[in-house]
Amino acid sequence: MAKAGLLSLARTVAAEYAADRIRMNVVAGGAISTGVANTVPEQWVDGIPVGRYGTSDDVADAAIYLLSDVSAYVTGQQIVVDGGVSVRGPFAQTPLVSRRPPVLESRRGAHSRSPSSRSE
User: Fold this and answer.
1) Sign of CA dihedral 13, 18, 22, 24
2) What's the pLDDT tens digit per position in 21-33?
3) Which of 7, 12, 55, 67 sits at 20 to 30 Å (Cα–Cα) from 77?
4) pTM for the complete prediction?
């Protein structure tokens, strides 16, 4: 509930102070590799769609975006920095089998024609 409360606070502050050009947003980090969190099992990476733990730089980049003029129209929002875990849904229990789409073999060969050999 703490995260929901923080987001609710951010939205309330954003609504209250937007006219004064004061913005309030939340950066929510997922599995972030830090010096403290080195005990997290490496096999958990299989459950992260981007295939790696986040870094403190990933979280800092989100914060820098929110501090910049580029995000001047963004207020009362939550930016989730979790490598796509939250988009998989709360019931995704199986690790991702592959993080990359399969590479299709070339269709050219005996069954295809080059542009110059096509009949019109």
Assistant:
1) positive
2) 999 999 999 888 8
3) 55
4) 0.68
DSSP-derived secondary structure for the chain: -HHHHHHHHHHHHHHHHGGGT----EEEE-SB--SS-TTS-GGGGGGSTTSS-B-HHHHHHHHHHHHSGGGTT--S-EEEESTTHHHH-TT--SPPS-SSPPPPPP--STT---GGG---
What six digits make up the tokens of 41? 């099992």
Amino acid, res. 53: Y
pLDDT at 61 (0 to 100):
97
Query: Where are the domains positioned within the chain?
Result: 2-88
